[in-house]
């Protein structure tokens, strides 16, 4: 008698969800999850309220990100004595700090306040395959966060749930980036500049975030560079082009600087 096999992987389509995606596609995140806040705003009868409308950027966790930017460091710096006592390192004038970069920035923020000429960072691109997940180790209760951030109990609970969920959503990425960029600005001199590498996944969000922290008037340019010069036969989503370009956003702290392009030579 022929053996019968039963598949447990086949699930019926959720027709209600398909209808929502068809008519309210802007209310779904990149992972296909419904954003109830966006959906409720779109369905509200009194959605048009000109007294409350303004141009800006908001996301779940923004109030928490601001709190992290001003919260005290929870770590101490410890000298690596064995490394520093090596002969080749004895007279070094450089500092190498290892650890969570937000904690490191907080340790630097007092001693190097407005002392840095240039910052270059290469943050997580949030591609879904680069290992970026946001999970915070700070422990706030719902009531504590509600009081500290000045938000509702419901929003405080949602924020704490998502900070422990190992999310790589846009909101998680922005919550991760905001306090780091906020402190980076404090470190820059008045004529300092910051370069940030990024790709298509978060370049739009990063530009808006930088406009908010550094000011739109301090945007210098978005440098596009060809990261891949050869075509590759890799599988991509049917509705996306294979990316060959990455970007470097350039902002100044305050004073405008003049930038000259380097001429392309034989060695590029």
Topology:
Layout: H1 15-23, H2 36-43, H3 62-70, H4 81-84, H5 101-111, E1 116-121, H6 142-149, H7 153-163, H8 170-187, E2 188-198, H9 203-214, E3 219-226, E4 245-252
Parallel strand pairs: 1-2
Antiparallel strand pairs: 2-4, 3-4
Describe the model.
- There is one protein chain.
- This protein is an alpha+beta fold and 268 residues long.
- The protein has a domain at 101-134 and 170-230 and 241-257: Rossmann fold, CATH 3.40.50.150.
- The chain is 34% helix and 12% strand.
- The chain has a 4-stranded mixed beta sheet with strand order 1-2-4-3.
- The longest helix is centred in the middle third of the chain and has 18 residues, at 170-187.
- It is globular.
- The N and C termini lie far apart (70 Å).
- The model has no long low-confidence stretch (mean pLDDT 84).
Task: Give a quick summary of the entry.
With 268 residues, the protein is α+β, with helices and mostly antiparallel strands.
Tally of DSSP β-strands: 4
Order of helices and strands: HHHHHEHHHEHEE
Counting helices, strands and paired strands, the structural category is alpha+beta
What is the CA–CA distance across the termini?
A: 70 Å
Question: Which word captures the global form?
Answer: globular
The parts where pLDDT drops under 50 for at least 5 residues are none
